[in-house]
Model the fold of this input.
Amino acid sequence: MAGAANLARQARALLAACILSFSGAAYAQCADPLALEPEFGAFAFTQTRHLSGVRAPLVSRGQAIVAQGSVDWRVTSPLDIRTQITASGITQSIEGGAPQRLGGQGDAFLASAGLLQLLSGDLASLANHYNIAPTRGPSGWRVRLTPKSETAARFLSYIEAGGCERVAHVEVRQANGDWMEIALSPAGS
Amino acid sequence: MRHWGAILCAVWIALACVIIGVRAQGGRAFDTDIQNLLPQNALEPLVRAAVGDAGRMAASRVTVLIAGEDFARVSEARADLQNALAATGFFAADAEAGEAMARWVYANRNELICETDPAQFDAAAVRARADALLYAPASMVTGDLLARDPFLLTLQLAQCLSPQAGAPAGDALLATGALNVSPFRIDVQDAVRAAYDEWRARWPDLQAARAGAVFYAEAGARQARAEIALIGGFSSIAIFALLFACFRRPQAMLVTLLSTLASLAGSLAATLLVFESVHVLVFVFGSALIGITSDYALHYLATGPQTGWAAPAERVKNVARPLAVCALSTSLGFAGLGLFGVPIFQQVAVFSVAGVLTAWWFTITILPMMDARPRFAEKHSAWWAKLERPFVSFQPSRKAIAAGALIGVAIIAAGVMRFSVRDDVRTFQPRSAELSAEETRVREALGFAASPVFLLSHGATADEARTREEAALAAWPAEAARDALAVSRFDPSAARRTENADLLRTQLYAPYLAERLEQLGLTPQADESTAPALPPMLAALEGQADGRAYLAAPLGPVAAAQAEAGEGAILVDPAARYSQALKSFRELAVWAVVAVFGACAMLVLALYRRWRALSVLVAPAAGALVGLALPTALGMPISFFSVAALFVVMGAGIDHSVFLFEAAETDGQSKELVVFLAALTTILAVGLLGLSGTYPVASFGLVVAAGVTAAYAGSFIPARRSVRAHNQG
Done:
């Protein structure tokens, strides 16, 4: 029995070693998250919002087009919302209506959250706004962004971006415990 | 008797020093608001009060754009700046104002709508916007808010009720807030400037751009102080050098200095007694007094070498009557400035009349006791006679007089040909190029340019004023209505509140609330908040004047371009109104000059009781004409301030004529040299005002300098007429 038990232990150790070596190889194939080249183009996204007191997560889908200096974030389901972020400001149109300029704190949050850099994978440039803490995982890297600004920290605990070759997943944790996750994939994949 | 006069004069001067010392302690005795240059009684009380409210609110804003390589440092620097400004005790950051507004909107959300016209209310749009807030990226929705405000009206109203200004993009941050006191107080400016400079020294690697009236006012005050030092300092040095060359006695300079200081003490004390605060530009205008009031001392001092230092009573008798005529006529001229309803000119009038009368009083009471006979009196008399000789012997030929007249006519003709006027107050105060460039950067970062125009709505009650503001905004296109910071949008009339609440209840809550709660699986939570007071930012835009309630709504450029405002509401452009008022005051001032001229004629006739005494008005008339024409011929347009300067020209012109006329009439001592000295000291003192960077001061100075020069030349005419009359008699 003891021999069988030893054999089982050795097998588990061997399996663990295999898994570790496999995952290590997988991570080794991932790019350095802080050295990603900015990537522009179209991405499909699924945004899932978890609000306290709301029975089910609020899920929206659509396509984001990231270009040099601008983001065109278009929700197509469950309704049509188009948000355009540029250096000169943020506008939003609902169900094909005329674009309205956004103001107030939402505007400031969108601008300072660095959505453009986040989506294009330019994580290193976010160091001005956030304390950056990268970590390794079995399937790639994760980078936690904690806001440096007291104003942003009043409603945002942290943003966590994950991926391997590019940002594939974003999680936003609000200060009151509500949270949101966004899954990104190249359009058409 | 004169001793009692001297004692009383000394008591007044000592009292004046005490008044100045006490009032200067508080730091509120002096103000620098350029608006105070403008005629207050030109606007109807309601508009004036609203202009004041809107102006105070706009002027109290402080904005600093901070940018740098490291966002963390930018963020830290902003917090540091806001703390430093708050530590002055005069500043509150916008975070507090923003929270007050948010609490108000949340508490009133069920009686407010985004649309300015309730007929345009669209419940479907409200629901769509609420969904957009749920599904759009990074909106500030929380579960707590959704449970209390299922349609997220608070967030929607926060977006639509006030004019939209963007947030700076990239690594820049704005430090914004408002001053809780006037930015035109010198102590406030100094405190804000010191806090800002110290903050810049702590963060030298960051870029900063400022916007706000307090920074412009501080720069303007600094310029005014520099001008006071330049004009007052240079003219004093020049005058004392001239006096030393003529009198060759330090004592003469000392008593002239004391006479000037006594005059300044009297003028400042009287102004501080009459007015709550004195505008700093009063001192710039008032520096002209150095040249005028020192003349009185000169006239008395000249009697020393002329009489071989006769007894003081005799010397005083020689100058008492012409001095009294001069002091009265000059006071009359300056007092005329007070008739225009322009606060700064009322201050200049009090300042100048008090200064002239104090100088006159000092000259005939205290000065005689101080100017004792010098050791080498004969030598001094001989020197004076030597200096006086060319002036006395100078008899201009007919050709020279004709040439002088021709030059005068040519100047007047050139002035007529190049005649132009300037009434636009926006061109009066030079703006700091550095601050203008910084303000442009702030505006570019914000993507918003505020307009000076505001919507004034008024009514018998505050509710009626709100109703009229609502009607005005409802008649405008939505984009224009949204471009106004209007009280009624946040705090509507009672009727509009009821109408809004009915709309929300019948078109939104009744048909869709249950469905939304079900859809989201929400359990609605009770609203525990209490109704807050109207936020200070909005309360400042509401007031009462002339028995009527009014609202002043600052407008952005789109709203300001609207042509109509409807019944009980008008679009007010303060600068345009003040410019129009200055135009009418300029036209009125010309008639006032004529009226004062007439009053002086009557005064001269009453005192001298002969028609030829009217010839003393030739000099001021020539001074007034050339004083206006020469700057115009040189390309400086005529303004209200140019015409106001004619009062000083008339006062000085009459002074010179009266002394020469008196001397010719009474066969007394010659006055040619002392009148020349008096004219030169006035020109030195006032002509330098033409160097001022502020247009009103520069135009005032140039007109006085040109006018007094012409008046001096013309002042010999009455004496010649008098001598000829005597010879013929």
Summary: Chain B has a mean pLDDT of 83.
